[in-house]
């Protein structure tokens, strides 16, 4: 139960970690953990909408995750394809969907469907759901820096025009508020290249619960912990 609904974070980022370990603990193939993790993703996304969270970002697949075993990557891509088939359910909830990361690495059919979903859901503003696929925070910053450099070379801007506001607008999350709260289950205590720029003043919450077991009750605990903190942003 949320103790103070007046202090909800506007933007929550989720690092969906622990799927493989969840499966191994049960003597199952790692890919089965990703299937259970996908169920947790759907449950948490809908709960966030219910309690009034405006922006949510899920770290689903990093630029480094391609190094995982081929069958595990194949299962993640298959689950992602299933999600794209089901996405109309979120559109019914008037949810805007954005896929952040380098789409060029995906099969043409997946890439086209992502772009179509972004376009068709762009009219909604009750909640924005972002899914980080083939995403890396450092890669995102490098791409934004390259874009700013090209604008300067083309004389669209002067180098002196580059400030935090302009640079933020060149990120995948351009126009989206920075993350207030980043949650990582599974016992790991790092952000693993997730929203590096956008997490400059994020509150971090770590829990030993593995992602497939992460429930609305666990999210309530994280939000209550967030609400108890003093956010001064460098002030007194």
Give an overview in words.
The chain has helices spanning 19-25, 30-51, 70-86, 88-92, 108-121, 137-153, 164-169, 216-227; strands at 11-15, 55-62, 95-100, 127-135, 181-184, 203-206. It has a single domain (8-136, 181-227), classed as Undecaprenyl pyrophosphate synthetase (3-Layer(aba) Sandwich). The model has no long low-confidence stretch (mean pLDDT 93). Helix 1 crosses helix 2. Strand 3 (95-100), helix 5 (108-121) and strand 4 form a beta-alpha-beta unit. The chain is of the alpha/beta class. A 6-stranded parallel β-sheet has the order 3-4-2-1-5-6, sandwiched between helices. The radius of gyration is 18 Å and the shape is globular. The two termini are 30 Å apart. The longest helix is centred in the N-terminal third of the chain and has 22 residues, at 30-51. It contains 8 helices and 6 strands, in the order βααβααβαβααββα.
């Amino acid at each position: 139960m949320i103790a103070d609904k007046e202090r909800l974070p506007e933007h929550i980022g989720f690092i969906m970690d622990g799927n493989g370990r969840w499966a191994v603990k049960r003597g199952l193939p790692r890919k089965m953990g990703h299937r259970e993790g996908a169920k947790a993703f759907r449950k948490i996304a809908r709960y966030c909408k219910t309690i009034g969270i405006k922006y949510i970002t899920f770290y689903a697949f990093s630029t480094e995750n391609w190094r995982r075993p081929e069958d595990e990557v194949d299962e993640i891509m298959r689950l992602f394809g299933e999600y794209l088939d089901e996405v109309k359910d979120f559109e019914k909830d008037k949810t805007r969907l954005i896929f952040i990361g380098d789409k060029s690495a995906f099969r043409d059919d997946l890439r086209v469907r992502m772009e179509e979903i972004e376009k068709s859901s762009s009219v909604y503003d009750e909640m924005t759901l972002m899914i980080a696929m083939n995403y890396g925070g450092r890669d995102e910053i490098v791409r934004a820096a390259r874009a700013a450099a090209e604008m300067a070379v083309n004389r669209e801007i002067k180098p002196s025009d580059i400030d935090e506001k302009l640079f933020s607008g060149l990120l995948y999350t351009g126009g989206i508020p920075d993350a207030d709260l980043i949650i990582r289950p599974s016992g790991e205590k790092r952000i693993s290249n997730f929203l590096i720029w956008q997490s400059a003043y994020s509150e971090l919450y770590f829990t030993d619960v593995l992602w497939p077991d992460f429930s609305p009750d666990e999210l309530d605990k994280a939000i209550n912990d967030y609400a108890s903190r003093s956010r001064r942003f460098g002030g007194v």
